[in-house]
Specification:
The chain is α/β, with parallel strands linked by helices. It has 18 helices and 27 strands. The longest helix has 29 residues. The mean pLDDT is about 95. The structure holds alpha-D-galactopyranose (GLA) and zinc ion. Zinc ion binds next to helix 7.
Amino acid sequence: MNTFRRRLPGVVYGGDYNPEQWPREVWQEDVRLMREAGVRLVSLGVFSWAMLEPADGEFDFSWLDEIMDLLWANGIHVNLATPNAAPPPWLATDFPETLSVDRRGVRHGIGSRGHFCPSSPVYRDRSRRIAAKLAERYGKHPGLAMWHIGNEYHSDCFCDLCDDGFRTWLRQRYGTLEELNHRWGTAFWSQRYSDWAQVHLPRPVRGWVNPSRELDFSRFTSDLLLDLVVQERDLLHGITPDVPATTNFFQCRLTDSHRWAQELDVVAFDCYPDPGKPDAMAVAAFQYDLMRSLRGGQPWMLMEQAAGAVSQWKTNQVKQPGRMRLGSYQAVAHGSDAVMFFQWRASRQGQEKFHSAMLPHGGEKTRTWQEVKALGNELRTVDEVATARTRAQVAIVWDWQNWWAVEGCAHPDNTFDYRDTVARHYRALWHSQVAVDVVTLDDDLSPYRVLVVPNQYLMTRHHSAAARKFVEDGGRLVVSYFSGIVDEDDRIVEGGYPGALREIVGAHVQEFSPLPAEATVPVQAAAGENALDGFFATASVWQDDLDTETARPLAVYRKGHLTGKAAVTEHRLGRGRAVYVGTRLDDDALEALVRHVLDCADVRPVHAAPRGVEVTERQTRTSAYLFLLNHRQDKATITLDRSGTDLISGRRLQAGETLVLDAADVAVVRSPLAPPQDADRPSSDS
Ligand code: GLA
Ligand code: ZN
């Protein structure tokens, strides 16, 4: 990373560049305009395998030589891709087994992308071969800044090779068939295996699927795809030890980014917030906090975003004036040291010809281009923010293993959407304007005062011990219903619900009582001495029939068969408290509850600001950078709690002064930091 930072200091600007779609004359215009827009890094060759290797073992690097040189002659660095995401037609024709197979057993055809079997030895061999050729040829090219391995890995496969691979993976994991039978609960429905040859990946079944097998297949798929990345990374590092390697994440169900991130030199993320969705920017903030947290707070890279509308949804709305700029600063505010796009120039043909680009079909006269160009130049003013870190006292749990399990089959409520559930909880924190890390219960929880755990259905013994320690050590835990129910095998944690949490929350769920769609139940603060005085909520989707054991009720149901019983409880344990939420509270009530917990834990907003203004802070050893992002449709007024300089406008600001931000506008206020007193001051050395 350090070499990379030396070559590309500051906040990196650029995008995917696909020159193979254009004649040479256009390349000249491309580099001219890239310079105008301050582009410093392009992701090159992501989908160029067929152009680089037109037939098995026949290579043509001439065009890539030329464009690498042209870019470098113009001072533009390259994030060079290994092109394995879109295998060429000859691979499919010569070796049909390299094509992926869907769950129903249908082999995918060519004409799109991602159509590879991750187990195929031929696919692996040919993708490694082209990666090695690229590394050998361009490893010493002065323009090469980093490696972009594949693209948005998401190719699961149900072919016979993967079936073999799954069995091998299981044998390694469990050793004996007896252990496998135990882990998968095969005593149920006569599923007991008496020979490894009977064990298969989950192809379509007659009735409900075995949830433990599904869970293991998800783990296997994530590991299998990661193995492709690791192999290429090792190969590239072997030839170019100083060139950092990454792959671009998106929030993909198949790939456990917590594990993946540990294998990469830097985290890179693609983000496409939907301008048509009111909560899109809060969801983006969550994803950015997750990306920053994956490698312990290290800066990450926004590798792709859209300059305007995308083309993959039913209705693809534009980003209104200023909103692309705002979204770009939002990524930087949450720890990204790059602002990059898919893609540089809008394609004139193919699946994505209506996807926006930095340079639209309409060229230099378009609003998008003007905004792209202005932003690229303006970002220079915040270059010094790069490498700065964020400190959070609050964490929220997001866990791929739980995602796989909690949306499993035949649950009490089968309308579950983990992403949406976590997003709702995160939104409550976002509106509270506090800094948030995104963790799993396997991470170090000691930096946090508040930990929000949305619907952590799957909890290992270690998770349960970690949650207990967190509370006993003085933390405030907020955990919502249908948590602590099963272990890592999807086996009920015995001892009464929520088995893994019962002693921590001090309450027992006698029964799950999901509500019919549209049904709601009023909830109010419990009588007696209660810090939630005046609390009122509308509950929906789910009720726990909850017996408070050592906990006390904070809020109770006012109607229905659970009238008078607890909806929200609080339990003192050691030096901390655990709040348990046994229903789905409406958004306002959830936020009120979360704010109450933050107050009790003495966690303050990063800075006071009106609702809809996002506030974050990044710090180096010497400076604090306060980001104020106005997501509102009108202007916002902020009274500054510090003196500093707005890097973007260059304005000097005094503490107590009022800053007016227009709709969609941004300020980045730098203030000096007192010299560090302790050793754990955030460092700027990543
Ligand atoms: C993903 C891909 C890109 C492109 C964009 C479109 O992020 O990596 O190649 O398809 O989506 O939004
Ligand atoms: Zn396969």
